[in-house]
Write a structure and sequence with these properties.
Elements lengths: L4 H4 L1 H4 L5 H8 L3 E5 L3 H13 L3 E5 L17 H6 L3 H12 L4 E5 L8 H5 L4 E4 L4 H14 L3 E7 L2 E7 L7 H4 L12 H4 L3 H19 L9 E6 L4 E6 L31
Parallel strand pairs: 1-2, 1-4, 2-3, 4-5
Antiparallel strand pairs: 5-6, 6-7, 7-8
Helix pairs in contact: 4-11
Length: 268
C-alpha cells in the first residue's frame, strides 16, 4: 500500500517556514520544465519527490551516451534505445512518486506552440542551454504573467535568477540580446563537470518550491553565480535593474514569442 501524503512528506513539513500549508499549496502547483538535460533532470527530480501537483517536461532530444555522466534520470538502456528525454524522464519520475501528474512533451518549444505549452502553468523553469529559447520563455512569462526561473551551467560554473513579471527585472532587462553565434561557451565546446549542475538545479528547485508554496518573501532576489572550480559564490542583487525601456517588460514587445526575431527551437 502506498504511503499517505502525510507520511511521504513528513520530514519537509516539519521545516517550520514551509509546514503543512506550504505542502498543501505545493501539491496544487503546476510547473513546466523546459529542457530535460542536466539541469532539467535535477529540477524535475527534486520537485516530483517534494510533491508538486503537476509537472510538464518539454524536450525534443533523445538520450545519448554523452548525457549519462550528468543527466541523472537516464540509464544506459535509455541511451541504447535512443529514447526521447521527456518520455524517459517522465517514466522514471512516475516510479518515484505516483501522486504527481507527470506529462511528457517530446517536442520543440517554439513561437507556434509556446502558448499551448506554457500559458497554463503556475511556473516555468529553464533547463535549456539555448539562448533563443530563454528569450522565448521570457516573452511568454511576461505576456501571461507567469514567474520563471533562469538557470545555466557550463564548465564548473553556472548562474540562476528568478523572474516575477511586474515585480522583478525580466531576463531581457539584464541581457538585452543573445550573444553572437559561437561567442558563448557550451557544454560541447567547454565541457561540464556534473557537480555544478546539482548546485544550480537545486537553487532553481528551491526557488520553485518557495514560489509554489506561497513563500515569495524568501526568494533570493539576485543573479547568483557559482564557480565550483575556484569555490566562489557571487550574489548580485537585481532589485534596481528593471528597465523602463526594456523591449519586453517595458514596451511589451514580444518579438521572440511572435517570431519577429528568428525562430527558436530547444536543444540541450
Amino acid at each position: 500500500m502506498p504511503a499517505s501524503s502525510e507520511e511521504r512528506y513528513a520530514r519537509q513539513m516539519r521545516f517550520r517556514p514551509f509546514g503543512p500549508e506550504g505542502q498543501e499549496r505545493l501539491s496544487r502547483g503546476f510547473a513546466v520544465v523546459v529542457g530535460m538535460g542536466a539541469l532539467g533532470c535535477v529540477i524535475a527530480n527534486l520537485l516530483v519527490r517534494a510533491g508538486i501537483g503537476r509537472i510538464r517536461l518539454i524536450d525534443r532530444d533523445i538520450v545519448t551516451w554523452s548525457n549519462l555522466h550528468r543527466q541523472s534520470l537516464y540509464t544506459e538502456a535509455d541511451a541504447e534505445a535512443g529514447l526521447p528525454k521527456a518520455e524517459a524522464a517522465a517514466e522514471r519520475l512516475r516510479a518515484f512518486n505516483r501522486l504527481v501528474d507527470i506529462e511528457a512533451a517530446a517536442v520543440h518549444l517554439n513561437s507556434r506552440n509556446a502558448e499551448k505549452l506554457l500559458a497554463d502553468a503556475d511556473l516555468i523553469i529553464d533547463g535549456t542551454d539555448h539562448f533563443g529559447v530563454r528569450y522565448l520563455i521570457n516573452d511568454a512569462a511576461v505576456r501571461y504573467g507567469i514567474p520563471w526561473i533562469y538557470g545555466g551551467a557550463v564548465g564548473a560554473s553556472g548562474m540562476t535568477m528568478t523572474i516575477v513579471p511586474g515585480r522583478t527585472p525580466c531576463y531581457r532587462c539584464l541581457f538585452p540580446s543573445p550573444p553572437p553565434p559561437g561567442a558563448a561557451d557550451t557544454c560541447e565546446t567547454a565541457g561540464i563537470l556534473p557537480a555544478i549542475v546539482d548546485v544550480i538545479g537545486s537553487l532553481q528547485a528551491m526557488e520553485a518550491i518557495k514560489l509554489l508554496a506561497g513563500r515569495e518573501e524568501h526568494l533570493h532576489g539576485a543573479l547568483i553565480h557559482a564557480d565550483l572550480w575556484n569555490t566562489s559564490f557571487t550574489k548580485m542583487k537585481t532589485a534596481g535593474a528593471r528597465r523602463d525601456d526594456c523591449p519586453c517588460c517595458g514596451f511589451r514587445r514580444f518579438e521572440y514569442l511572435e517570431a519577429a526575431i528568428g525562430e527558436a527551437s530547444e536543444t540541450v
